[in-house]
Amino acid sequence: MLKVDNINVFYGAIHAIKGISLEVNEGEIVTLIGANGAGKSTVLKTISGLLRTKTGGINFLGKDITSTLPHKIVERGLAHVPEGRRIFLQMTVQENLEMGAYTRPSGDIEAELEKVYVLFPRLLERRRQVAGTLSGGEQQMLAIGRALMSKPKLLMLDEPSMGLAPILVEQIFTIIQEMNKAGTTVLLVEQNAQMALSIADRAYVLETGSISISGTGRELAESDEIRKAYLGG
Ligand code: ATP
What we know:
Blueprint: E1 2-11, E2 14-24, E3 29-34, H1 40-47, E4 55-60, E5 63-64, H2 70-75, E6 78-81, H3 93-99, H4 109-119, H5 121-125, H6 136-148, E7 154-158, H7 166-181, E8 185-190, H8 193-199, E9 202-207, E10 210-216, H9 217-222, H10 224-230
Parallel strand pairs: 3-8, 3-9, 6-7, 7-8
Antiparallel strand pairs: 1-2, 1-4, 4-5, 9-10
Helix pairs in contact: 3-6
The chain binds adenosine-5'-triphosphate (ATP).
Adenosine-5'-triphosphate (ATP) binds near residues 38, 40 and 42.
C-alpha cells in the first residue's frame, strides 16, 4: 500500500533522514519507534507531503506521491494526525470533525460523523463544546476522529499516547485496533514502544535518521536489544 524507498530529508544543512526505506501493507498496523529526535515525525511529515525528499521516492496505492501536494495526498486516502493534535481550538467538536471531511462530497458527511461518534461516544456527548476546553485525551480523540472523517485508507498517527494518563493510552490503543479491524491500515509513531509493539504487526526502529532494526511486533518486543534500549530492560 505504502512504499518508502531510500528517502533522504534535510532541514537546511541537517541530514535528518538518511536513506530510509519502509513498507506498509494493506490491513497492517506498522509502528515506527525510536528515541527523541530520531526522525520519526520527520518521516511522517515527508510521507504526507509537508516536507520534501532530497532523493528517494514514496509510492502510495501504486502511484508516486513524492511531489504530490499534501491536500491531494489526503484525497488519495492518506491521513496524518500530527504530534500535538493541532485541532481548531475555537471551533466546536462537531465543526472540527466537519473540517476533516473537506475532501469528501457533502452528502457523505453525516454517515461519517455517525461512525466517528460510535467509535468515540465521548465526542458525541461533547459535540457542541469548544475544542479548546476538551481534556488532553478528548483532544486526541478529536484529532483522530477528524482524520477519520476523510475516510483514509491509511491513517498515520504521531504519538497518540503523548501526555495521556495510562487508562486513556489504553483506550486510544484499543480504538486504534478497532479502526484497523474496520479496515483502516495504520502507521503509528510512538515513544511508548511497549504499547506500540503489543498491537503492531510489524515495526521499524529508527536511530538518528536510519532504520536500525525491523521485524514483527512480537520479535521486537522479545528482542534483548530492544528491551534494553526502549522497554526499560
Ligand atoms: P520526538 O520523539 O522527540 O518527537 P522524532 O523522532 O519525531 O522525535 P523529529 O521531530 O523527526 O524526531 O526530528 C528529527 C531531527 O530533525 C531532530 O534532530 C530535530 O531536532 C531535527 N528537526 C526537526 N524539525 C526541524 C526543523 N524544523 N528544523 C531543523 N531541524 C529540525
